[in-house]
Task: structure prediction
Amino acid sequence: MTELDIAEVVRRAGVPASTLRYYEEKGLITPVGRRGLRRQYDPSVLERLALIALARTAGFPLDEIARVFAPDGTIRIDREALLAKAGELDRRIGELAVLRDSLRHVAACPAPSHMECPTFRHILAATAAADVPGRPKRAPGAAWNPSIPSSANEYAP
Amino acid sequence: MTELDIAEVVRRAGVPASTLRYYEEKGLITPVGRRGLRRQYDPSVLERLALIALARTAGFPLDEIARVFAPDGTIRIDREALLAKAGELDRRIGELAVLRDSLRHVAACPAPSHMECPTFRHILAATAAADVPGRPKRAPGAAWNPSIPSSANEYAP
DNA sequence: TCTTGACCTCAAGTCGGCTTGAAGTAGCAC
DNA sequence: GTGCTACTTCAAGCCGACTTGAGGTCAAGA
Result:
């Protein structure tokens, strides 16, 4: 009997039992059976949980992740979606890099008040400019949690 | 009279009126007066809104942003906090970069099923490993929306 | 003067991803 | 057989950042 008790999964995956039940409700995982009331899982659930964690880090919502799991237990990932997400990540990375550099500049800036620092004002202006037009509250294509004001290319490498 | 009507602020900042009222409730902005019922703003509110947008993109929660605005209208930013946030962004950027590369690999991988791709399995294993120990549900120091499992360096270039 | 329509207030709802609490049950040690 | 304890179910709550809806007010144009 190589099945894992839910307690074991909790221990090995570091995911709380409540989360496992929630994932089950959402169709992300399925226990292979019960011992008494207790859920028993196939060891492959650990791999699946890792995949879920990975996808979550990438910004996929649970609903979308659920669709990746075929009913037969295998996974089927849409390669186009992956590339699209990779592109999204590229943009997000660019934004965050700009932001990080801005923060470092402002931290080092000798201007008495930040508002007197020309670079800071420039960053603000750029942010405002990037923020105004269109204003897609949520990215139109794929779902991505933090609302991302577009454009990074202006100051991209 | 150089005051801006709320409608004008909505138009120029691209921020909905409901959000402006919400920000006011949170102490992030303050109208200089009213014309009838309508809020009137000092033009500097546009700069302030840009700053708020910038801070939000950096992952600062509104509460924290509010503390940046001194009662006299000036801003006072804690340089240490900025550097800390910059460090956070560095880590986040590293993670996302790994993820992006992984996605591209998987999309290009010729293995019939993703689970048969050794690289994919390696990534999963690393994710799982990074995910288990400690498990700070929310970053202990500063607040950052998506819960971020640490470590990226394991498979960094 | 009267209408229009954009603003106003206040309370409640939304969204995603969980967590928490009350009340119940069953495997295992004694 | 009796407890203990860790599980179970189900409903409700929480977080942050807003949005929505009902019902009210008022400046400006016809």
Summary: Residues 5-7, 17, 21, 36-39, 137, 147 of chain A lie near DNA strand D (CB under 10 Å from a C1'). Residues 133-157 of chain A have pLDDT under 50 and may be disordered. The longest strand of chain A covers residues 38-41.
